[in-house]
Design goal:
2 domains; six-stranded mixed β-sheet; 60s Ribosomal Protein L30, Chain: A; four-stranded mixed β-sheet; PurM-like_N; 356 residues; Phosphoribosyl-aminoimidazole Synthetase, Chain A, domain 2; cytoplasm; ligase; Phosphoribosylformylglycinamidine cyclo-ligase; 12 helices
Length: 356
């Protein structure tokens, strides 16, 4: 049976070897509540830890990293893509004040190369440690004929918990709240279909190579495009616990305005001042090479802002100080006001970025 399966393109022994190689990294991404080890049919988490909550609300999120995996494949660098995966799911939980507890992952590939799979899982596990979540299990599936031997995709899901009384969201946002922006580490893992089309696939003199050094980036294009997604989880949870922050927004697909609007009550509007920050050079590179209009950039890329907090004016200095202590640059980027007719629940970006 095993030989027949191998003839069909599925290598069980390679999968077993991948599990052996990843065990070290999965072990690092544990929490005290995790029971058992790698290899079971299900990950186990001791839910008695939730007894300390008066009314625990479970939060869950799932996502992938999109076409950024194509950059990892072409660069043959696989130990950072896991940061993107973890960042995409845990920071969706954090915006409501939930602490990420555990995560599972799914890797589909055309051919299991144990070292490659172990590198991917190493990144996932390392990022889980940074986020404070346990990696309790996952699945690696070999799909010959569906994916080329060197192709793969990753997805993940996470579960967290928040006390009902501590839930953040639009129900707390008020007129006079301040918009605190948190710097992204770069493109994160959204908008890569646009970025790849503009920088790598376009015809003409603007097309770049991944291995090419780009002076304005200070490194090769491939190195820039593989910069991992920043994980805000621990820093934002500290802000949630130590300040009176009202809401947060994770800036992913759709850009800053669309994601912040998801936590805006209808009777209010938020105004973001572009002049408060200059996006990193990679954003202006995409704009210039592809001649991409600013509205299209802002509807696709994070433009240098990976997370936003809406906080009372009295809490701004404390919020920015806490984020700085966690190594996250943050600044006042705008304010929340009562909405004029037609602006209900909207987010407006005004002004110009310095140097743009």
């Amino acid at each position: 049976m095993t030989n027949a399966y191998a003839a069909a393109g599925v290598d069980i022994e390679a999968a077993d070897r991948a599990i052996d190689l990843m065990k070290e990294w999965v072990e690092k991404a544990r929490r005290p509540e995790v029971l058992g080890g790698l290899g079971g049919f299900a990950g186990l988490f001791d839910a008695s830890a939730l007894l300390r909550y008066r009314r625990p609300l479970l939060a869950t999120s799932t996502d992938g990293v999109g076409t950024k995996v194509e950059i990892a494949r072409r660069m043959d660098v696989h130990d950072t893509i896991g940061y993107d995966l973890v960042g995409m799911v845990v920071d969706d939980l954090v915006v409501c004040g939930a602490e990420p507890l555990f995560m599972t992952d799914y890797i589909a590939t055309g051919k299991v190369v144990p070292e490659k799979i172990a590198a991917i899982v190493k990144g996932i596990a390392s990022a889980c440690v940074e986020a404070g979540a346990a990696l309790v299990g996952g699945e690696t599936a070999e799909h010959p004929g569906l994916l080329a031997p060197d192709e793969y995709d990753v997805a993940g899901a996470t579960t967290g918990v928040v006390e009902a009384d501590d839930l953040l969201g639009s129900h707390l946002v008020e007129d006079g709240d301040v918009v605190v922006a948190m710097a992204s580490s770069g493109l994160h893992s959204n908008g890569y279909s646009l970025v790849r089309h503009v920088l790598l696939n376009a015809d003409g003199p603007g097309r770049l190579d991944l291995e090419a050094h780009v002076d304005e980036l200070g490194r090769t294009l491939g190195e820039e495009l593989l910069v991992p997604t920043r994980i805000y989880a621990k820093a934002c949870l500290r802000v949630a616990r130590e300040t009176g922050v009202h809401a947060m927004s994770h800036v992913t697909g759709g850009g800053l305005a669309a994601n912040l609007a998801r936590v805006m009550p209808r009777e209010l509007t938020a105004t973001i001042e572009r002049e408060t920050w200059t996006p990193a050079p990679v954003f202006s590179l995409v704009k210039r090479v592809g001649d991409v209009p600013l509205p299209d950039l802002e509807a696709t890329l994070n433009q240098g802002v990976g997370m936003v907090a809406l906080t009372p004016a009295a809490e701004v200095d404390r919020t920015i100080a806490l984020l700085s202590e966690s190594g996250i640059d943050a600044w006042v980027a705008g304010a929340v006001t009562k909405a004029a007719e037609g602006d209900e629940g909207r987010v407006r970006l005004v002004g110009q970025h310095p140097g743009w």
